Amino acid sequence: MARIKPQALLLQSKKKKGPTRISVTTIVMCNLIIALIALSLVATYRYWSRRSLDHTGSDFSAAEEMDAFSKKDDLPGYAILNTSKGLITVELYKDGSPEVVDRFLDLCQKGHFKGMPFSHVIKHYVIKGGDSQGLGVAEDWISKGKLRSQLVTSPKHEAFMLGTTKNKLENKGFELVITTAPIPDLNDKLIVFGRVIKGEDVVQEIEEVDTDEHYRPKSHVGITSVTLKREI
Known about the structure:
alpha+beta; eight-stranded antiparallel beta sheet; about 40% helix
C-alpha cells in the first residue's frame, strides 16, 4: 500500500475544515446597504409627513377631523333616567348642544345624578332635579302669574324637553329640568339639550305629587340612577 505524502495529508485536512469565512469587505457592504435602506425609509416618512401638514386645514387635519367624527359618533345618544316613579328615556341633542351634552355625559359617568331629588315640581310647568333651595328658572314665571293658556307654543321649549339652567352651568353646577308644558319664555334661562321620547307618563306622575307652598315635594321623589345608551 502506497504511503500518502505529508503534503497530500495537509491538503486533505484543509478540505475537511468548515466553510470559508465571510470577508470583512462583504460585511461592510451589507451594513452599508442596510444603512441606505434605513435612510431611504426615514426620508420617505419625512416627505409624506410634510406633505400631509401642507394640506392641513385651518383648525384640524383631515386625520384629526376623521378622528373627532368617529369619537362623536361613539358618544351615547340616549339616557335612561331611573326614577322612583319609573323610567324616563331621553334623546340627547349631540349636534344641537354638544358642550352641554358632553358635560351631562361626564357627570353621569361620575355618578352625579345618582340619588338626585326632584327639588321642585310645578304642575303644567316644570319638574326640576337638584339640591337647589331656590326656584331658579321658575321664579319669574310664577311671580308674574302667567297662565298656560296665554303661552304660545315654541318648538324649542315644548313639553317634555330636557334642559339645564344657564346660571348653574356657568357656575360649574348642573340642574336637570324637564318641561311639562310648552314654555316659550325660557330662552334666556334654560339650555335645552334633549327631549323625552319614552316615559312621558312617568313625568306626568311626578308632576302630580303633593308639594308644599314652595313647590317642594312632600315625599321624596328623585333619580336613582342614569343609564347611557348609544342606541335604543
